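Researcher: Please generate the 3D structure of the following complex. Treat every line as part of one assembly.
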Amino acid sequence: MSKRIEVNDLNVYYGKFKAVEDVQLSIEPRTVTAFIGPSGCGKSTFLRTLNRMHEVIPGAYVDGEVLIDGDNLYAPGVDPVLVRRQVGMVFQRPNPFPTMSIRDNVLAGVKLNNRRISKSDADDLTEKSLQGANLWNEVKDRLDLPGSGLSGGQQQRLCIARAIAVQPDVLLMDEPCSALDPISTLAIEDLIEELKQQYTIVIVTHNMQQASRVSDRTAFFNIAGTGKPGKLIEYDDTTTMFSRPSVQATEDYVSGRFG
Amino acid sequence: MVATTDTRPMTNSLTAGKLPKNTTVLVLAASLLILTILFVILQLAGATDGFNYVGAIVLGVILFTVAMYAISLAVEGPRKATDRLASILVTAAFVLALIPLISLVFTVVTFGSARFDIEFFTYSLRNIVGAGGGAIHAIVGTVEVTLAATALSVPIGMATAIYLVEYGRGRLAQAITFFVDVMTGIPSIVAGLFAYALFVLFFGPGIRMGFGGAVALSVLMIPIVVRSTEEMLKLVPNELREAAYALGVPKWLTIVKVVLPTSIAGILTGVMLAVARVIGETAPLLIVAGFTSNLNYDLFSDRMMTLPVFVYNQYVAQGQDAQAYIDRAWTGALVLILIVMLLNLIARIVARAFAPKIR
Amino acid sequence: MIAVGTTPPVIKAKQRPGDRIFSAGTLLAGSLILAILAAVAVFLIVQALPALVADPADISGGEGFLAYVAPLAFGTVWGAIIALAIAVPLSIAVALFISHFAPRRLASALGYVIDLLAAVPSVVYGLWGIGVLAPAIVPVYVWLTENMGWFPLFAPPVSGTGRTILTVAIVLAVMILPIITALSREIFLQTPVLHEEAALALGATRWEMIRTAVLPFGRPGIISASMLGLGRALGETMAVAIILSPAAVVKFALLQQQNPNTIAANIALSFPESYGLGTDTLIASGLVLFVITLVVNSIARYIINRRKAFSGAN
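Model: Done. Output below.
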């Protein structure tokens, strides 16, 4: 289920503007990797290149390669739609489909792709995914109500359930807690800890405590100034990054001296 | 409980130089009263025949405006007086704008109810001279032509809007946007001439058929559908599209199964308002669908009567027993207005009832 | 569907058949709009051509197409301008009333009532104009010609029926009022609250706030809304055709029996009985109307788009 990600010499461009430069890193299966760095340093942009979601933005393209268990996402003829079925994503703000019930939201990945699924399989998948997202007990009595009726934290867990229902190998999370209150945040962090057993997880966060709490490894991105491309400054075990980083900029950032 | 006595001094320095609240009402009442008395005197003196309501009200409002300005100028100063004058004029403008609406609805209902009977809805005008007969042929024609126009314009209009919002980039999209705007401004009679010119090419001069009317109406309808659908699609948050893409859903399925269902209520509302807008069009139908007294179900052959043309035709081509023709015209107008209002009402209900809750 | 051979040699992403059909379909619909508009222009020109090149003596009136269409074009523009002169101040006031004077709760309902004016079919306006407004307004016309006849626009002799170009203009004004009001209202509501509050905080009265903050902000919007209203008034057919008592004249007087006809109304009145070159002439005059409205609308759109770029709404 879980897969290894390897990124080689990756550059990301928005039209003529180079947003991220020369990223080189590898992510082990069954780990949580956190991307930290100041706003605009390209960490979210880079995250999106891991499942080709950056292509949604007009004019965005990359060069370099991203290998998932040795398969290059950017090889000619690769279908981004199939990539995204293997690399799921959770967004900054919870975004359940407003026209669908809780159950249909969980099954969205299956139903939207016009795949047939038997009633019992659908029920099993719903229960398994919602339990996987620690939401089953809270919503099992109201699966047919609209997903937008849940609280923000519940909606975000619903989105996680929706993402894991597609059974991806990798789960990308783009600041998944930034729109949530501390209690909901805690629930999501606990969930990440559990999901780690099955998935490779990459999370972008602005909250350094969160990075140190949930992640095994941390990558620090920075920019030299406005209009310059973002760069990967340092990538190491989280404990190392937060206790004795080898680059001065990292230490300044994690200790709160700038950014 | 002990009665709370107001301990503050009766005169607050901040209220100085301000007119009491009910001044406006009092001055308005006084002005109208003065003019009423004046006109009663004029009537009694024989200067006017009957009581001149319009004169009394118009002059009364003018007197009120002048009096309010003068009083406010004396008590509150020039700035406040100008403010009051502006308020009065703006309110008066609104009331003035309502007068035609009220008069129009009142007239249409009064005159229109004369022939608002079963015969009107069950008979055509075939072999009818003078009184009697009905507008069933026109109602059938309007329904058929409008439905055909809707069937032509909704797919084209919606697909264009989807192209503009979801796919369109660069010059082509800009050109389409610009020309949709241009199309919005095409006069309806020009649309009629276009449909006529188009059909002449295939069927020769003098061609009249219901389908031509449908083509003319869709030229008017397409830009309205494009605009409203575009607005609605833009309201769908990008986050929903991204959520679907991240689940590995192809773009076209995302549009069909996420974007359209989310905005369908708004799109339907837009379509119904577009239908309401073109169902009253007269000029293009007069030109290309023509007029007839007979019931014709076939869109593709012969002249076809429609309700707006029926109204026009009854009024301008009055025959023996002119009143019968005029009555039919007004009743046709009443039916037309009822249809338009009903469509508007349904559109609002659809918009309110089926709108998904996006936060 | 697009032929496979046209795909570029560099493969960016695998295209799914569903995606390709769908995007090609929507592209086709979009292009169809361009095609329709081109067809409108081409077909009108083709059908109008015989009238444009015909011997002047054969055209109705016997003096060629230009002499035929000039009074009509004059009537079209003149009627629309008077309608605009009536509708614009009134619309601005009504829009202000809804956006800044009426109680908040009522505002949207009042806006809807004004929108109802736009929903009334033009043929009904025609009936109302000739059946109610024209007879009711005759005394006013009589008074105006008797007391203000020295003013060229009100020159006697007065029309006895009220079917004058001023009556037409009033009805047109009522018809375009909701259009101008709706657009102006939108613009007024978009006035930055900060500007309004800044004015109020300086001790301005409501009217002073509107004059210093709302109206300057809304001016481009008012102008373009007026142009759209003008475009509508120029093309309006049935109300004019029913109400006006027309003649082939060019004159500015508003209250007389003989009034310049408009292009649209002339087509509606003459088309059912026309044949041959007469039909061609009418289509040619429709082409002239098309060009006039096109110019007016393009100017309006140009102003709107320029403003959009400044407001940063997108």
